[in-house]
Amino acid sequence: MVTEVAIFTALPGKEEELGQGIIQGIEFIRQHPECISANATRCVEKPGRYMLSVVWSSLEAHVDDFRNGPLFAQWRGPVAGLFESNPEVYHYQVY
């Protein structure tokens, strides 16, 4: 298993819209058969920052299968145009 951690920073004035978009879009991530869990949190000190945390069965399930499948576009639809540049994305394993 790997945990994907993605940090999104809202465009100025789009903080609430981005949060709502993440809530809508996360349902598409959860539909993927290799997604074990997915949740999002909002930064206390910087309310325009959100952290998406997704546990996948493997790195390939996320990078190869999900990102190249139809659910990825559905996930990104509700958040498109609401965040600065590309999110910072890394994958973690239990050490």
From TrEMBL:
InterPro entries: ABM_dom, Dimeric_a/b-barrel. It holds the Pfam family ABM. Transmembrane segments: none annotated. Residues 1-76 form the ABM domain. It comes from the Bacteria. This is ABM domain-containing protein. It comes from Dictyobacter alpinus.
